[in-house]
């Protein structure tokens, strides 16, 4: 066999003869984590270990571009370069999304009174840690 029929990063021969995973399924145990990711990180791609893998991601969120509640509080997005639109207006859109399972992301509302502009002209968003939310994703446009 040649190639990688399921595009999971493991070639078909490796799946059939070494890892014993299904070369037609990118996630042979259907736990939400690809076969190659599990093999590369010491997990079995044949046993559904969804919670163990979520714990791994939770403890190594920076490897996935994710931030825990504590990390988010210390987050500094750095400098952004903005360009004006056709009317010479600048617009910065900041979106905060949350998830507890790394699959279903929900936009987290940034509303008053939690969102303010402080005395130095900086946008501040303060909120209590949401119940079951484990991860945050911040994006800007």
Could you estimate the helical fraction of the residues in percent? 10-25%
Shape: elongated
Total number of β-strand segments?
5
Q: Low-confidence segments, ≥5 residues, pLDDT <50?
A: none
- Give the distance, in angstroms, between the N- and C-terminal Cα atoms: 44 Å
Order of helices and strands, N to C? HHHHEEEEE
Strand order of the largest sheet: 2-1-5
Structural class: alpha+beta
**Helix segment count?**
4
- Main sheet makeup: 3 strands, antiparallel
Strand content: 5-15%
Please, how many domains? Answer: 2
Rg calculated over all Cα atoms: 20 Å
For the residues shown, what is the average pLDDT?
A: 81
Provide a short characterization of the protein structure:
The chain is an alpha+beta fold. The chain has helices spanning 12-19, 35-40, 50-59, 69-73; strands spanning 94-99, 106-107, 115-117, 123-125, 135-140.
Provide key terms for this protein:
141 residues; alpha+beta; 2 domains; three-stranded antiparallel sheet
Task: Write structural notes for this entry.
This protein is of the alpha+beta class. It contains four helices and five strands. The strands form two sheets. A three-stranded antiparallel β-sheet has the order 2-1-5, with no helix packed on it. It has a two-stranded antiparallel sheet with strand order 3-4. Strand 3 (115-117) and strand 4 (123-125) form a beta hairpin. The protein is elongated and about 65 Å long. The protein starts with 11 loop residues before the first helix and ends with a strand. The model has no long low-confidence stretch (mean pLDDT 81).
